[in-house]
Amino acid sequence: MEKRNPLVWRCRGIELSLARPLVMGILNVTPDSFSDGGRHMTPDAAVEAALEMVDDGADIIDIGGESTRPGSDYVGEEEEIRRVLPVVKTLAEEAGIPISVDTRKASVARLALEAGAHIVNDVSALRDDPGMVSVVRETGAGAVLMHMAGTPKTMQDCPEYKDVVREVRAWLKRRLVAVVAQGVDPATIAIDPGIGFGKTTEQNLRLLAGLPRLATLGAPVLVGLSRKRFIGEITEEEVPDQRLSGSLTGMVWSLWHGASILRVHDVKASRQAVDLACAIARSE
Ligand code: HH2
């Protein structure tokens, strides 16, 4: 298996080991997420689903209060806080694993971190909200910088690249350099090619094939491909929660080619796939 580099991800003082890849369970507390929208609309239901993911072997829970699926609408700050905060608070106390908040808003990130979260997963790579970089810098939170062309509303309009791997790599490198220049600890940053964010099926495939080139940037690589539409297009499977086999195949490929963190809906199955891939790699 591709050697992971570096071996830890620093998130508010905790050093998460990447010697074994991390499984990040997705918990969307939204009415409209493409796969699990509307399933966890009360804090109790969301907490129960998250604790099940912990039992199933999740290393991190990623809580999101705004869908970023193609064409999705912007959610106001107050509403996002109302959705996310009670769940973060309870899980920070009860889950026993680090909590990540999937948000583009500095106010939401700050409140979530104050409530006990350790990671900010920002699909805008800390660009949308001018206050986001200082939240990450001041708290030492882990930060996921994800590549996205445009915004969720517009990103699928005309995804054009000459060489998608080269361009996404260069973009992530520029973001890395920019946030480190603003004082963010480089050991807290993970990068993500943003599978499905302003990319065609062919571009998503090229990015997955090109993961080793992204891994050379030296930051842990996170891949979020679980149940995404490109898997449906290749396999002619319309229903997102019927895309598990395709998702697992993409995940194992990603691990093999340099990813260290996988963002997944199906924690139990993903954990099993990751553990088996690692056991084989260790016995080489
Ligand atoms: N994908 C989604 C949301 N957040 N964050 C990172 N870092 N990487 C991803 O690939 C990623 C992400 C979209 O998936 P999901 O959360 O399941 O759906 P929705 O955005 O509709 O809530």
List the helices and strands and how they pair.
Layout: E1 8-11, E2 14-17, E3 22-28, H1 43-55, E4 60-64, H2 77-94, E5 99-102, H3 106-114, E6 119-122, H4 132-139, E7 142-146, H5 164-181, E8 189-192, H6 201-209, H7 211-215, E9 222-223, H8 229-235, H9 244-256, E10 261-264, H10 267-282
Parallel strand pairs: 3-4, 3-10, 4-5, 5-6, 6-7, 7-8, 9-10
Antiparallel strand pairs: 1-2
Helix pairs in contact: 1-2, 2-3, 3-4, 6-8, 9-10
Can you offer a commentary on this structure?
The protein is of the alpha/beta class and 284 residues long. 41% of the residues lie in helices and 15% in strands. It contains ten helices and ten strands. It has helices spanning 43-55, 77-94, 106-114, 132-139, 164-181, 201-209, 211-215, 229-235, 244-256, 267-282; strands spanning 8-11, 14-17, 22-28, 60-64, 99-102, 119-122, 142-146, 189-192, 222-223, 261-264. An eight-stranded parallel β-sheet has the order 8-7-6-5-4-3-10-9. The longest helix is centred in the first third of the chain and has 18 residues, at 77-94. The N and C termini lie close together (9 Å). The model has no long low-confidence stretch (mean pLDDT 94). The structure holds 6-hydroxymethylpterin-diphosphate. 6-hydroxymethylpterin-diphosphate is lined by residues 26, 28, 30, 33-35, 64, 67-69, 102, 121, 123, 144, 146, 192, 194-195, 222, 224, 263. 6-hydroxymethylpterin-diphosphate (HH2) binds next to strand 3 and strand 7.
